[in-house]
## 1
Amino acid sequence: MASLASSVRRVTKYKIVWPLLAMAILYLFNLIVVPGFFKIEVIDGHLYGSLVDVLNRGTPLIIMAIGMALVIALEGIDISVGSVLAIAGSMAIFMLEGHSLWVAILASLVIGLLCGLWNGMLVSILGIQPMVATLILLTVGRGIAQLITNGQILTTTNKGYEFIGKGYFLGLPFAVYIAAAVFIIIYLLKTKTAFGLFLEATGANRKSSEYAGVKPRAIFMSAYAICGLLAATAGIIYSSNLSSADANNAGLWYELDAILAVVIGGTSMRGGRFYLGGTVIGAIFIQSLTTTIYSLGVPPESILLVKAFVVILVCLIQSDAFRQMLTFKRKVTTS
Amino acid sequence: MKALRIRVSSNNIIILATLLLLVLLYGAGSMMYTGFFSMQVFLNLFIDNAYLIIVATGMAFVIITGGIDLSVASVVALISMVSASLLEQGMNAYVVMSISLLVGIAFGAGQGYLIHRFQLHPWIVTLAGMFLGRGIAYLIGTESIVVKNETYTKISSYKINLFGGGFISISVVIALLFVILAILVGRYTGFGRAVYALGGSERSSVLMGLSVGNTTIAVYTLSGFCSALGGIVFTFYMLSGNSLHLMGMEMDAIAACVIGGILLTGGFGYLIGPMFGVLCTGIIQTIIIFQGTLSSWWTKIVIGFLLFLFMALQRLIVMRKEKGGNATQITRKIAKNNVKM
C-alpha cells in the first residue's frame, strides 16, 4: 500500500506537467511549421498576433472549462454547457432591444443560473445520471434558444456590449480580464472556503463525506449552478465577440472541448481532486490546437476527429488497466 | 389465456402508463384535427420512425446493462454518408449495405472493447464516438449527397398494401421483424439473460460466472449494428447522405427507451417498450405538424419534457421499491401526470 500511495502522490505532483508538456510540443511544432505564429505586434496600443488571438478566442472555453471542472470533481458531467451558452447569448442580445446593458447581462446570467439549477435538481434530487440529465438540456436548450431568437440570427450594435468581447484594456482583450477574475474567484472558493473542501470530499467519496456531515445535495446544486452561471458568462463573451446570437451554431461541440480541457488538465473523470490551473492550461492547449489546425490549412472538419482521438487517448492514460498494460512504455506513448 | 389478465404492479406500471399516454395523445389528436384519425396517419408513424425504432431497441439493450450509447445518431449519419458516397461511385447496393453493417459493427465493437478492457465510463467513450462518427462523416463530405441507385430508390418507394387501404414500406417490416427478434433474444437466449443480469448487478454476474466482458462488448456491438441498420433504413427514407443528419437524435432514442419503461439504472425493461416510446414521440411530432403554426423546435422541447416526466416517474418507483411500498399511489401520480400533458 505504501508504494501505491507514494506513486499516487508522485503522479499528482506532476499533474500540471502533462498539459504543459503537450502545449510545449504543440508550440514547438508551430515554431517550425507555422511561420509568424509567435509574432506579436502593437497596433494602436493593442497587442495583435496569433498568441493574443488564442487567448482572446479561448476565453469562453477557459471560463466554461472552469465551471466544468467543479462538476467533474463531483464525478458528474454537464454536456449542456454549449446549449446554455447559446441560450445566454440569445437572451442577452434579445434583451438589448429596449433594455439597458446591465439588464441584458443580468437576464442572461440569471437564465444561465436557472439552467444550472435545473441540471443540479435533476442530478441531486431526482438522482438521474448526470450524463442523461444534462442531455435533456443539451437538445432542449437549442430549442429554447430558437424560441428566444424566434428562429433568426439576432444582431446588436450596442457599443458597451461589444466591448465585453472585442474591447481592449491596457493592451490586452477585455475578455481576458474577465477570465482571470473568474479564475481567481473560483480559486479562492476552492482553497479558502469550506465549499472547496466539501466539493472535493463529496467527489472523492460521497457516502463517507455524507457520514462526515457534508450535505451532498447542496454541494451538487451549487456546483451545477456555478457551471451554468459560468457557461452563461462564456455565452455573453462569445455573442459579444460576434455581435450576434445564432441559436443553432453558437457553442456547437463546445461541451467536448470543455470536458477535454478539464481532463487534459489532470482532473480525473472519477471525481475528487480537481486542478484549476491545469484546466486553464488545457483550455489554452485546445484553442491553440484549433488555431494550429486552421493555420495549417487542414480541412477544419478534421478538428472533430483529432479531438475525439485526444479524448480517448487522455482517458486511456488515466485508466489503471491501460497503465498496467504499458507500465514500462508509458512515457513513450504520452509524449 | 393467463397472459391477458394483467395486474398493475410496479413492474409493468411504466409500460401501462406509456400505453395510456399513447391512447390519450392519439385521442387528443383525433379530436382536435380532422383527418388525424386515419389508418394512414397511424401507419405513417411507423414509416417515418422505422429507423428510430431499430436504433432505440438497440439502445435498450445497452441501457439494460446499465450503460449508455451516445454515438447512435452520428453513426446513423455516418452510415447515410458512407452508403450515399459509395453508391455514387456505382457500387452494388447489397455490397454497400454489407459494408455499412460492418462499419457499424466495427464501430460498436471498438467502443465496447475500450469500455470493458480499460474500465472507461461508457458515456465518455461513446461521447468521443459521437464526435468521431460526425468527424468521419464530415471528412467524407460536408455537402448532401443524393442517392440515385436503382435498388435503393425501388426499396424506398415500394409500398406494401394492407387491409383497409393503408400501406407500409419495407423499412417498417424490417423494423417490426427486428423488434420481434430483439424480444425473443432478450427472453429466450443466454445472451439476453446475461444482459439483464449484468444490469441488475455487475458484481453478482461476475460471481455467477457470467462472462461480463464478452456481454459488454457484445451489447455495444449490437448497438453499433442497430445504428448501422437504422442508418440503412434511414437512407431508404431520406434517399440522401448528409453529415448533419439527425443532430441530437441520441436524445430521441434515449427518450424512447425511458418512456418505454427501460430503467436507466439498468437491469429492467421490456424490449417492446422502446417501440411504444417511439410511437409516443412520433404522435407528438404529428400533432405539432397538424397544428401548423408551432415551430418544429417545440417537438424537441415537448419530448425533453416528457423524458423528464418519465425519469421522475422511474425515480419514484425505484424509491418506492426501496421502501417496499405498494403501487396504487404511483398509479394515481401517473394519472395526474397524464392529465397535465
## 2
Amino acid sequence: MAELRGGGIGVDLPVGWEGEIFDRTPTIAGRSLGGPVGDTEVARNVVHLANFALPGERGDFGSGAVELMNSGAVMVILFEHGPESVDTPLFAREGIPVLTADEFHPQQMQRTLQGQSGRQIFFRHLGRAFCLYVVLGSHRQRQALVPVVNDVLGRLSIEPA
Amino acid sequence: MTAIVILLAVVVGILTVLVAGLLRSHAEMLRAFNELGVTFGHDGADTTSATLPDPVRRDVPHASDRVHESTGDGSVHEIVGMSPTGSAIAIGFAGRSERTLIAFLTSGCATCKGFWDAFRADAPLPRTVDRLVIVTRSADEESPAALTNLAPARHRVVMSSDAWNDYGVPVSPYFVLVDPNIGSIVGEGAASTWSQVGSLLGRADADAEFENERRIDADLRAAGLEPDDPTLYPTDSDGARP
C-alpha cells in the first residue's frame, strides 16, 4: 500500500492505485510550485488518484487521463480552493463526501465522454475548501464502482488550515 | 651514432612501459565495467562504441535465471517519491493490464542524456510497452532543477531512491519491464541507446513466446499427445479445420 502525502493532504492508496498530489501552496515569492497542464485557475493543491495508469500530461480536472479510462476505471480529483472560498455558500457542505451511485450522471462530466459519468461536489473540511470531482469509466457499472470511490475517499486525511 | 641508438632504445623502452601501463589500465576498466554488467564488443547493429548485455528475460517459474548484477528480489514494487517540481507521486502496478517500462536514469550520466533527449522528443515506445515511467534517485542525491529541465512532459518522472533499492538497480541507465498481468518483472538490463532497448525488448518477447510454446509442447507430451496430434485440431463435417 502506497502512502501519498503533500500539501497537508494524505492518502493510503489501495494496492494497484496510483496518484499525485500537486503541492501548489504559494511560496513567499508568490510563485506556485509546479502542477498539471491546462491550469485555468490558481489552486492551492490538486490531488489525482486513479486505478489506471495516469499519463504524464494531465489537466487539473483529468483531461488527458479520462480519455484513457476503461469501463472499470475510476479517477478521483480533489481541487483545493483558496481560504477566501471557505465561508462562501458554494462550500457550505461540511466534511469529505460519501457518494451514492444515484448521484452520478454522464452530464456531470467536465467534457462528456461516451459511456462515462461524473460527479462534482464542493465541500469544506477543517477550514479548507475543496471541489471533489469523480469520473467513472462506465456509467452502467456505477453500482460497482462507487464503493471503490468511497473506499478511497475514506482513506483521505486532510490537515486543518 | 652509438649515442643515437642508445637514445632510441631508451625512448622505445619508455614507450613500451607506457603502452603496457595503458593496456593494464584498460584491462582494469574493462573488468570494472564487466562487474557492473557491461561488456564491450562491436557486433550490435545499434552499437556505436559499446554493446551492453541483453536484458535478462526471466520466465516466471525460473526467477533465479538472473545473470546480471541487480540485487532486487525480482518482485514488482510500487514506486513512491516526488516529482522534480515537488509533487508527491505513487505509481501502482497490481491488478492492472498495462506493461510498464521503468527507466532508471540520472541527470548526470553521459549515456542517460541520450535517453532524456529521446523521451523529450517523444520517441515512440517499443511495441510491447504501454507506458514509460522514469525513476531517478531522490532529491538528496539528485538535482531537481536539472531534472526539471530534462523531464519530458509526456512521461512521469519520479525521484525515489527507495525504488532504486527495491529493484536492485546496479547501474544507470537501467531498464525494468513490469507486466502486472503476471505480477512480475519480465525483463531487465542495461542499454546504451533507446533503439537498442526496443530491439532487446523485442528479442526478449520472442524468447518468451518460444519458451511458452516449448512449455506447452512439453505439457502435451506429458499427457501423451504430440503437438501435431489431430485430436487437438477440431474439424468440421467435411474434415476441414475451421
